Amino acid sequence: MADRRVRMLVLSPFPEEAAGTRFRITHYIPYLESQGFDVTVDSFFTPSFFRLVYRKGQYPQKIVAFAGLAARRLAAMPAARRYDLIFIYREAFPIGPPFVERYLSRGSAAIVLDFDDAIYLRNSSEANRFVESLKFAQKVATIVGLADRVIVGNEFLAAYARAHNSAVTTIPTCVDTSRFVRRTVPSAPGPPVVGWIGSPTTTPYLAALGDVLRETGRRRPFLMRVSGSAEDFSLPGVDVRHEPWTIGREVELFNTCDVGVYPLTDDEWSRGKCGFKAIQFMACGVPVVASAVGVNRDIIEDGVNGFLASSPAEWVDKLDRLVADPSLRARLGAAGRKTIEERYSLKVQAPLMADLLRDAARAGRHQGKRA
Description:
Strand order of the largest sheet: 2-1-3-4-5-6
Low-confidence stretches: 367-371
Mean pLDDT: 92
Number of helices: 16
Radius of gyration: 21 Å
């Protein structure tokens, strides 16, 4: 292995339009290639199917499209075992028992599993509740046990993984700080912009913040910019402006905001999240108010590099302070940017990822590494 490049296959359920695929593996690829890896990415969902999944209903179209994608993935599995290393993001096959992962584990390629959500819990979008009936409760635990190495995004997930595998490493989700940069032009005239950037599945978190946003707006004016939400999302009493989300505009969208919000509920699923929207806002020098849940409390030091909120009253107070005070926004934004540069940047995390993957490839399949 030392005298040749490492042939690495990435299996992901989602295409690069999904943040998890981009920021858990594909943005590492240029660095990995410079370090002797040849990386092939094979996503189960196509971009068009990924968009279809989030639409309500349309089950016949979803079933037909899924069947074709499943056949393609299964046909590719014999060739997959010829790689030196197989990196599985979340799971290799999105429904049923872990038969694909078990098949891959019987080959000579080392298996590295990565996940950044509490995927062992039952959780799916309202548009696809039927999928729950096709999930197997012990699938994730089995895949974790089959892997030679497991990478997770935070210590909450690591505690779960270590119950099934002793070779667990935490690598937080990070950003390329040469791409996620502070805006170079001043804010536009007018009320400050409070921004939320998410997805259809995370829109309920923003909806739950409705009373907070209305009360903040009664105190002083602001514009609410929303990107990536469910198509029919609105907040009566709040001036909401929708901005279409695209990969090409990702950094620009964060930079159009003066304040970012990252609301979550305090439950097991949220405690498994990796605080990534907060990280993206902070990387762009945008001060963020985030729910004091899970890893957010590790990323944000309240009042130093952002704000944490545990109650509606705290949310209103801290949002109001940021909307009212440009100097406070500048101070917290600069401190947040520094935090990301020091702890959550690609520059810091990429060498750790490369070392872990190289060690896994060199070791190959090694049954003794499993718990």
